[in-house]
Automatic annotation (TrEMBL), chains A, B:
Tagged with keyword Transcription: yes
Keyword line: DNA-binding, Transcription, Transcription regulation
GO MF assignments: DNA binding; DNA-binding transcription factor activity
Domain HTH arsR-type intervals: 1-84
The protein's name in its UniProt record: Helix-turn-helix domain-containing protein
SUPFAM superfamilies in alphabetical order: Winged helix' DNA-binding domain
Gene3D superfamilies: Winged helix-like DNA-binding domain superfamily/Winged helix DNA-binding domain
InterPro entries: ArsR-like_HTH, HTH_ArsR_DNA-bd_dom, HTH_MetalResp_TranReg, WH-like_DNA-bd_sf, WH_DNA-bd_sf
Sections of the chain in a coiled coil: none
Length: 114, 114
DNA sequence: AGAAAGGGTAACCTATTGGTTACGCGTTTG
DNA sequence: CAAACGCGTAACCAATAGGTTACCCTTTCT
């Protein structure tokens, strides 16, 4: 799976898919290489599990599979320093951190009820 | 740099180095492949910047270079879901999170003083 | 039904990679 | 100072990866 992100074209594809689902043709159209070449990159990504595909009519739509990225992050995490995590925390302060506290509070309530 | 972690031997080496500095010979000794083969993997890791080396007498000691892992994490982060970060937060609750809050408090104090 | 569109697979070629053995060079040791 | 140690590099070889063109299947349009 780590080998899947080794190739620059495949990394590009992953970044593109962050913007939403794309068909094979749309993806291939954005690269200077031939369509079959892109098709094989897509196969590698599929087999690595980083990407999922669905057939819709005569086209095949691709989208990210978030689960696998979590595995990558899990492997990477032990190499990171605490300060790295702090930066992430800063970035997500308003997003995650608050909702997290809110759910905490909710859980507290439940515990008291139970 | 992403290509550096594509190879399983190199990933193994990185994991080994998490335990501290190791000489080239110590690293090579833990693999079934020949020493020159390992030596070239080490060169790839060196050139990728994930690893630093220092010559000590007639041996060459290797250690992780944390900075590059941060870059990897930065690339990976946009692919992760908020829930992933929450898990990390749980794992680091006592480590980072508390000291973070403590420093926050300290900064607050400074602001009031200034 | 036939033509066109979307897209994967096969066969093929070249460049890269990862392994091996042979070798060279600086550092330690007897 | 010579022998031994630690380790990188060079030359070579087989396997893999990534590109290309040619081909085939399925779905849509007329």
């Amino acid at each position: 799976m780590a080998a899947a992100i080794a190739d620059p074209v495949r990394r590009q594809i992953l970044v593109m898919l962050r913007g939403g689902r794309l068909s094979a043709g749309q993806i291939a159209g954005r690269f200077p290489i031939s369509r079959p070449a892109v098709s094989r990159h897509l196969r590698v990504l599929r087999q690595s599990g980083l990407v999922r595909d669905e057939l819709v009519g005569r086209q095949r739509l691709y989208e990210l599979d978030a689960g696998r990225f979590t595995e990558l992050a899990a492997w990477l995490a032990p190499f990171l320093q605490p300060s790295d995590w702090e930066h992430r925390l800063d970035a997500l302060e308003t997003e995650v951190y608050r909702t997290r506290r809110e759910r905490r509070a909710a859980d507290q309530t439940k515990e008291n009820t139970a």
